[in-house]
Amino acid sequence: MRHNKGFTLIELIVVIMIMAISTTVVVSSISSVYIRNMQQCAIEIDALLSRCRISAMSRAGNVYLELWQGTDGIYAAYCESGGGSGDIREEEKVGKSMLSIVWTDSGGTTHDLSAGSLYLAFDRGTGALLPLSRSFAMAGDTFSPLLNCTDISVTHGTSQRTVVLVPVTGKHYISAD
Q: Are 152 and 173 in contact (CB under 8 A)?
């Protein structure tokens, strides 16, 4: 009776195949978590834009949305001011720190959210997106010429979800790029 001390070639191939399949499953699971986080962030921004637009058309006073990137994630604040009942500011975390956001103005310039806040507001009568200079002024900040925000892109690695804004109508939708 012989005692072999080793593996056969077939056993070695089977072990390598099992390890390759396991690695593929783990990597795709991690990737899907990141994509889900990115998608959820875009959905929450889109929902807050809808809320802000509806509120702007139905309330007195200024209603605007502020987006900024903190050290531990992406935040949004729904803000109402002036309506006679005091100011309302509701903040919430809309994205994790692994995500990044850039936004583009109608002049084609891309702005990184980590460099400063983005303020968006809608016209009370038409629901159209207000120019950035008026939106920033509501928050007590300034932005140069009469440009509009045309999109907000949430990215992680090479994946991206974009909230596309139509300034003339105030409509917005999520696009997977």
A: no
Nearest-5° Cα angle at 134, 152 to 39:
15
What is the pLDDT averaged over residues 90-112?
91
Nearest to 123 by CA among 48, 172, 55, 76: 55
pTM (two decimals): 0.80
Query: What gap in Å lies between CA 94 and CA 85, rounded to an integer?
Result: 27
Find where tokens 């140069």 sit.
144
- CA angle, corner 86, sides to 85 and 89, nearest 5? 120
What was the pLDDT predicted at 153?
Answer: 94
Which DSSP category does 114 fall into?
G
Residues 165 and 149: beta-carbon distance below 8 Å: yes
What phi and psi values does residue 55 have, to the nearest 5 degrees? -65, -40
DSSP letters of 96-121?
ETT-EEEEEETTS-EEEGGGS-EEEE
Query: Which H or E element spans position 42?
Result: helix 9-58
The CA distance from 98 to 88, in Å, is 29
Of 50, 73, 74, nearest in space to 63 by CA: 50
- Give backbone dihedrals phi and psi of 107, rounded to 5 degrees, phi first: -85, -5
CB 121 within 8 A of CB 131: no
